[in-house]
Amino acid sequence: METDVLVVGAGPVGLMMAAELRRHDVRCRIIDKLTAPAPYCKAIGVQPRTLEIWEQLGIATEMINGGIWLRGMWAFVNGREIKRVEMDLSDLPYGFLGLPQYDTERILAAHLATFGTPVERGVELQAFRQTDEGVAATLAKADGATETLRCHYLVGCDGAHSTVRHGLGLSFEGDQYPLEFALGDVEVRWVLPHGYGYRFLHITEHQADDFLICIPLPELHRYRLTTVIPSDPASRRPEEVEHGVLTDRPPTYACRSAGSS
Ligand SMILES: Cc1cc2nc3c(=O)[nH]c(=O)nc-3n(C[C@H](O)[C@H](O)[C@H](O)COP(=O)(O)OP(=O)(O)OC[C@H]3O[C@@H](n4cnc5c(N)ncnc54)[C@H](O)[C@@H]3O)c2cc1C
Predict the structure, then answer these.
(1) N or C terminus of the chain with fewer C-beta within 10 Å?
(2) What is the pTM for the complete model shown?
(3) Is the CB of residue 34 below 6 angstroms from any atom belonging to ligand 1?
């Protein structure tokens, strides 16, 4: 066997998987079809339990130094504050941390590299098959070359549109919302204190017709904003909504409806 485990995907799940395998002295390779890490904040909230596990890996301090403690959440409806939740996790070893996903991935990848295991970028799992000894995986490289890798185990950490899941014929239960969201990583100057998440809801005739969620990022004034792009629900079917990050249509003020507040 060329390696014990092939980890497909170098998002947070694949990086953790590979780091834990290496910590337990298991040989592995980790590949990702992207030639460079994605630069988007994506998942920001880190649970206290995750920090406990990162402490065991020796990387909790670096994660904490790069992040921001999340202090709570304020909710507003039609411009009026309706709820303020202060997060008191003082009975736990750690609080609730905010850290952009690209920083989580950067620190995990650097930790993995200390075991001599780099993320092999620009390498895509194209196909795989069961053999008597394990798995034979066909990998395609960015320069057009292909490789057949023989391993004992293949671990699919390749995200929502997983090649591994499709290859195994596994279903992905659930429905898609017929909604598109605009996300922005921006500076917000306001009087509201930093360190809190903010939810602004707009309700017309008992129906929520707009929202804005602001999650604080480590730098002062910086937030990740999420809002919904208005569209006529009757004109959109769930299967018509594109999924994933669509960078060819960056959010603009024009994507907000005239009725937005
Ligand atoms: C815009 C956006 C905002 C988000 N915001 C939040 C949030 O606020 N909070 C939250 O909890 N979550 C959020 N998420 C979700 C969060 O990012 C995911 O839950 C998380 O990334 C899942 O991690 P993962 O490691 O399972 O998969 P991913 O991070 O998707 O990583 C999978 C990796 O596999 C690679 N890959 C795929 N197929 C192959 C293949 N065939 N061969 C080789 N490599 C392959 C991909 O390139 C990718 O790097 C957001 C997601 C997006 C897109």
Answers:
(1) C
(2) 0.92
(3) yes
